[in-house]
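Fold this complex.
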Amino acid sequence: MNKVVLGLIVGGILGIFDGLTAWFTPAVRAQMVGIVVGSTFKGLIAGVIIGYFARKVNSLALGILFGLAVGLILAYAVAAMPDPSGHHYYFEIMIPGGIVGMIVGYATQRYGSAPQLAR
Amino acid sequence: MTYLSDSALNRLRAAADTPDLSSTRYRPIDKLGQGGMGGVYRVEDTVLQREVALKIIAAFDSGTELGERLLHEARVIAQLEHPGIVPVHDVGRLPDGCVFYAMKLVQGDRLDDHISGLESLAERLRIFGKICEAVSFAHSRGVLHRDLKPQNIMVGPFGEVLVMDWGISKVLGNTEAKASGPLALLGTNHGTVLGTPGFMAPEQARGEHVDHRADVFSLGALLQFMNVGSSRVIGAISSKAMAEKPGDRYASVHDLSTDVAHFLDGLPVSAYPESWTTRLQRWAGKNKAWLLLILAYLIMRTLFILWRAAE
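Structure:
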């Protein structure tokens, strides 16, 4: 499995899981479906970007750092959108989003096949 | 009557001890060691202008059988072209009937001296792996060493490991009389004991027929010697290699070295059955960063959930 596909799968799975945790926040429970779809989509985008980075750069530390940055940026974009009451959930979305990015960064650096060199 | 002084006597002894190499391309420099059947000398190859080691066996019977056996030993080693086996350069007979062969002059320490300075078990095991490679190669050519012990392993200054002294080696598939080395003079029929106590397989000590598993036993003893009570897993590997019955040992040197390599890589080894908790611990140890990240995520999520619930 190549690193981009691996990033896509890990990002997608963590995105779904991340979205489902919104159930524990009663205020946003009504928008669960939208949150899960959005969170999954965010995870997929992060997975592709981080997986592509892992194809180009072979460094565990840089991979995790890049994953953190991508996770935080994408999570910020989501957190910037307020709920119907106008409340923002920066911490609740950005901190787990950043960790998810780090997990995807680690996974794509450690696992997944590197591209073959052209003959 | 004239008495000789001690120094004159010593010079005479040294002269008598120095082989007559005048008919060869070699010039003696000094003596490296003495065995029961002859000695090993540092000599200069005057043609190629390099130092080599010359093993000279006192085959004074000038008969053909002994000479042929010694030549056979040299030929056996010459077949074993491997970085871990000392190469033979030349073979011949001196005017006094002694048979010699020239081999690479190995610089370095004997294994027992070398490992006393090594703290790390991993370093010791890497050396052991190189020994296994050389012995396994010899087995693939049908040759048994039969006298593997620390004194017969040299470690060079660049980490090269050489298995020495194939003097009592045996070629599988040949008859003992045809195949054995110089000590075969003593006879290697069933009942004759060749080898070193402590490193010799029980069947070898009893003078019975031996196969490659006798070398597996000796390697197990070598591993035990190199482990010095450091690791239970390595202890289990050496115990399996040193099983009383050949059938209970590793089937090949390759299997033995694979178990040691697995130990070095943190993988399970066949000689040491693990509980699931040990396996889990080893897996967790190898995937620390992975587990820490997931744990961090779960803790963070749980904290937010608890915080929201408290509000």
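The radius of gyration of chain B is 26 Å.
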